[in-house]
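Project standup — Tuesday

K.O.: blocked on the structure for the chain from last sprint. Re-posting the sequence here as requested.
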Amino acid sequence: MRQLGCGALFVLLAALPAAAQDPTLAPRSKGSPSAAVTVYEMSDFQCPYCRRHTLETFPTLEREYVATGKVRWVFINFPLASIHPNAVAAAQFAMCSARQGKFWQAHDILYQEQEKWAPLKDPGPYLVSLFDPLRLLRAPMTACLQKSETLAEIRGDAEGAVKAGAQSTPTFYVEGLLVVGAQPIELFRQLLDSLVVAKSARGKKGS
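H.V.: unblocked you, prediction finished:
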């Protein structure tokens, strides 16, 4: 697979990511399971465009769509290791944190402090330094990281992302469509509003 940087909007029909049926999704999901629309964000913790989306756009999406019950948001690991050598280590840290119910806390701090750990030759010591700020239990975290216990889950995520048509990060799978790149909030609003209306109307007809 050719691994690219963030591009412009690219929308097409795609296969549902294999990870959609993964029971490990719950700790890295936000919003109501019965929401009209589900968004799968296929992202790389070392990707600067993913960081921009997380810090600049997602807070508004969370407030307007996730918290209001309109959208369920699911994070899918898609580390582009060939261009981001620390991405897999960061994904493992986040997934190990998820076992303690701290995925989103780890997610947020990894993006907030990306400029500190991303350029390191060995990000391990820096990631370990995050245990205390996140109030993570040291023994299980250390064992999880040292034994690469979540690596198979991360690989499964990445394989599902590829099957869905993702080639770059961030890519968003939204009800059979792909949105590629750190797009502005206006574009997400237009897409999500139309999908929520359409899915809600369909649900009323079927009731």
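K.O.: great, moving the ticket to review. The chain has one domain: 38-200. The CA atoms of residues 171 and 180 lie 4 Å apart.
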